[in-house]
Design goal:
This protein has about 325 residues and is an alpha/beta fold. It has a single domain, classed as Alpha/Beta hydrolase fold, catalytic domain (Rossmann fold, 3-Layer(aba) Sandwich). The protein contains 15 helices and eight strands. Helix 7 packs antiparallel against helix 8.
C-alpha cells in the first residue's frame, strides 16, 4: 500500500469515528402514552447506565437541562479513578403539562399532581426496559426525586439532589433577602412591575419567564455568567397553571415525604452551590431527612454545571 492509500485509509477511519461521535451526540426526541392518555415527550442520549434527570420550576420544560447532560457527558469520561470512565444514557422528560407533554388547561387541576408525574416516570422506566436507574433532580425536580424515592424506592439505584430546596421553605426567605441585597434599584423596580402585571392577568407564562430572567443575577455567583445562563434558558417554557398546582401539591405531600424519606436506602448526594441564594442551610436541612446522604458543595450559584462544569463533573465522578 503506497503513502497515498495509507493516508486515505487513515482519513477515512478518522472521518468514520468523527461521524459516529457526532451521531452519538445527538438528542433523540421520543414520546409515549401514559395509562390516562397523556402523551409524554422525553429526550434521550448516550450509552451506559441510565440516568433520569428531572426538571425544576416547577412547570419548566426539559430544554434547559439538556446542557447538564451534555456537560456530564463531556466531563465524566475525562476522569480515571482506577476504572473505566463514567458513561450514562441520559433521559430528560417534559413532565406532564410542560413543554411538549401537553394537557388541556381545564384538565391540569385533575391530572397534574405528584403521584401522576412520578407514575409517568415509572412507566417510562419500564417502557425503556431498565430495572432501575440513577435519578438526578434539579431545583424543584429534586423535591420530585425525593417523592419518587419514597413511592418507588426499588426503582432508583442512586439519587442526586442538585440545588434542591428544603421542605421547610427556609429557601424562600433566603432568596428574598438575596434579592434585596444583590439587585440594583432599577432591577428591583423591574421585578415589581412584572409582579404587578402578573397580578393583573395577561400572558402569565411569558411574564413569569421574564421575571425569572430578571432574577438571574440573584441565582448566579458571577454576574459575568449571566449570558451563559441566559443561553441555556433561551428555549425554555413554563406552564404557570402547572407551577401553581405543583407548589400546592408540595404542601399536600409534606407529611408523606418527611415520614418516608428517612427510610430510603439508595446512595444519595446533595450537590449544592455555596453561593446559591437558597442558602447553604437547605443542604443540611435535606440531609436531616436523609442522614446517610453526602453533601458536596461547589463555589457556584443555582446552575452549578454552567458556572463550573469541572466541579460538577468531579462531584458526580466521586459519587458514582
Amino acid at each position: 500500500m503506497n503513502n497515498y492509500q495509507t493516508h486515505k485509509k487513515n482519513y477515512l477511519t478518522i472521518a468514520f469515528f468523527l461521524f459516529a461521535s457526532i451521531c452519538q451526540a445527538q438528542w433523540k426526541e421520543e414520546t409515549y402514552l401514559t395509562d390516562d392518555s397523556v402523551r409524554i415527550t422525553y429526550y434521550i442520549k448516550g450509552t451506559g447506565a441510565p440516568m433520569l434527570i428531572i426538571p425544576g420550576g416547577p412547570g419548566y420544560d426539559a430544554s434547559y437541562l439538556l446542557s447538564l447532560a451534555d456537560t456530564l457527558a463531556k466531563e465524566l469520561p475525562s476522569y480515571h479513578n482506577k476504572r473505566e470512565p463514567l458513561q450514562f444514557t441520559y433521559i430528560i422528560p417534559d413532565l406532564r403539562g410542560t413543554g411538549k407533554s401537553k394537557i388541556a388547561a381545564g384538565d391540569i387541576e385533575r391530572k397534574v399532581n405528584f403521584k401522576n408525574v412520578i407514575t409517568d416516570l415509572e412507566q417510562l422506566r419500564k417502557k425503556l426496559g431498565y430495572q432501575h436507574w440513577a435519578v438526578t433532580g434539579h431545583s424543584f425536580g429534586g423535591l420530585l426525586a425525593q417523592y419518587y424515592s419514597c413511592l418507588f424506592p426499588e426503582a432508583i439505584d442512586h439519587m442526586v439532589l442538585l440545588s434542591t430546596p428544603d421542605l421547610n421553605w427556609n429557601w424562600n426567605t433566603n432568596i428574598g433577602l438575596h434579592k434585596i441585597s444583590l439587585l440594583t434599584p432599577v432591577e428591583l423596580a423591574l421585578l415589581d412591575t412584572l409582579q404587578s402585571k402578573m397580578r393583573k392577568g395577561g400572558n402569565i407564562d411569558s411574564l413569569k419567564l421574564a421575571y425569572d430572567r430578571a432574577m438571574l443575577p440573584v441565582y448566579i455567583f458571577q454576574r459575568a455568567d449571566t449570558l451563559k445562563i441566559m443561553e441555556i434558558l433561551k428555549e425554555v417554557t413554563i406552564n404557570m397553571a402547572v407551577f401553581n398546582k405543583m407548589v400546592a401539591e408540595l404542601y399536600g405531600n409534606y407529611k408523606f415525604i418527611t415520614v418516608n424519606l428517612p427510610a430510603i436506602k439508595m446512595p444519595v448526594m446533595i450537590l449544592h452551590g455555596r453561593m446559591d441564594p437558597m442558602g447553604e442551610g437547605v443542604a443540611y436541612e435535606n440531609q436531616k431527612l436523609i442522614p446517610h446522604a453526602i453533601i458536596s458543595f461547589s463555589n457556584n450559584g443555582h446552575f452549578l454545571w454552567v458556572e463550573n462544569s469541572y466541579q460538577v463533573g468531579n462531584a458526580f465522578n466521586a459519587f458514582f
